[in-house]
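By convention, the token line describes the chain's fold. To illustrate:
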Amino acid sequence: MKLLLNLRLPFWILYGLADLTFVVVYYIVRYRRSVVDENLRKSFPEKSHKEQRTIARQFYRHFADYLFETVRLSTMSEKEIRKRIVFKNMELADKYFEQGRSVVAFFSHCGNWEWVTSIGFWSNFRDSDGQPATFAQIYRPLKSKWADEYFLKLRSHFHTHSIPKASSFREMVRMRNSGRISLTGFLSDQKPSHGDHGHITTFLNHPTAIISGTERMARKLDFVALYLDMEKPRRGHYVVNVRLISDNPRLTEEGEITESYAKLLEQTIRRTPHIWLWTHKRWKNKVELPAENTNGGSRDIEHTT
């Protein structure tokens, strides 16, 4: 197993293996098929059953690609990764770096989120000492010690730092106080964890509690909020568009940044639905919109489920 994870196989072989994996996972094992089918049915009620099944098959093909692409990440060079994932409008982040502003970046389980750790290659910023910005991502430690160590090593392959969720605010304050300019990525499309303030909104036809911790970080630290909008133009290739959510978060209303992110993410998913991770039970814990907001409004709550 460890040998496979470190093999530098050509991509044409990896995608051949991915095709076989798709057949096994989709047709034989039927991995979380019922979860995916239910998520798609409720998220896209306007689509026919045939259209939903097409999205499901496309998703499982993409999911198989993601697995082998992620394994290959550990042996990819800068030249290889830059050919396969392109960051557009990175000069937006550099502009704020030049102003001495740090950034929180909202992104999601779209495309290949592990490859986003190569974002530092696309920044031209250097401070007065010639140092680049610090690039980091927030993560939740895995229960398996081996898997946790593997993914930490994988995510540092292109010199980004992994910050445990439990100590994220403390670490970001430490970076700010030390004068380090940073961009920290938050996978913000999961359900809120216990103790997090959930922002409730209508998302993909569901009343949904969206993680609000990323917004709270931006507001408390006065960091610029950006969105990393991922596309998959063809197999094995991704484009990430860097988009502004707010460059003055302290002047926004509570929940405004998270609401903007939710709308942007929904646009991303509706544009290319099969590249989002549909296997999670994202709406397992039911939430309700306030009566006055049932037509698409939103509010913040203390998420206790």
